[in-house]
Structure formats: C-alpha cells, structure tokens
Amino acid sequence: MYYALEVAYGLYLGLISIMDIRNKMIPLRWLLCGTIFIPAYFLTGEAGELKTKVLGTIPGAVLMLVSAASRGQIGMADAVLIMILGACIGIGQVISVISISLMAIAAVSMVMLIAGKLNRKSTLPYIPFVLLGYAASVVLI
Hints:
By secondary structure, the chain is mostly helical. The protein contains eight helices and no strands. The chain starts with a helix and ends with a helix.
C-alpha cells in the first residue's frame, strides 16, 4: 500500500512539474489537491509519527516567509508544495528531498549559465527538481 502511495504522489508531482514548466505557475486548486495525500500517508504509518509530519511542514513555512520577503523570487507555490510534502513524508525525508533538489537545480543552472542558455535574471521551474529529489529519496531511503 505504501509503495502505491509513493507512486501516486510521484505522479502528482509529475503533473504539477509539467504545469510549472509550461506555465511557470500552478493553480492553487492543483496544489491543494496534494493535501489528499496527507491523511493517506498518515494512515499507512510508514513515514513516521505525527510529530515528524508536523515538523515536516517547517521547511515549507520558512520558504513561504522567504518568498514573501523576496517579493516572489521564490515561488509561493514551491513553498506550499514543500509544506504539503513535509506533512506527508516527515521532516527527515523532506530535508533529503530539498537537499537533492537544490543540488540538482544548482548543477543544471551552472551548466546552462556556462552554455549561455541562462543569465542572472533567468528563472527555472523548481518543482521538477522536487520531483527528482522525491524520486531519489524514495529509492535511496
């Protein structure tokens, strides 16, 4: 059951990633669809106890503050998605997802900057990298 849930959440992230790449924005209703996974993850009991899931929302909350302080340089949708993901998988795994996604986007950014495909003002969609981080954490953890 837990593996099916991980696959379903991965498919959801894939759909959201496509929206992020194409539109550079995600409708709130699609983000909120992700909240249906919170009770499902909690009921499986695989990702830890309630305390770790509540703590898992902290990185998303911090990103929300950073998004507000930076006037949207970091998308609010990214922060909301990380908050929902943290509530699903808990603090330990969401930190892994964020770490992997940040390393991946940094590597891609460097390559694209060197290749002249990006400049200092360019933006990249972050959610596809969250999907990569989630997939890697599911396989490795």
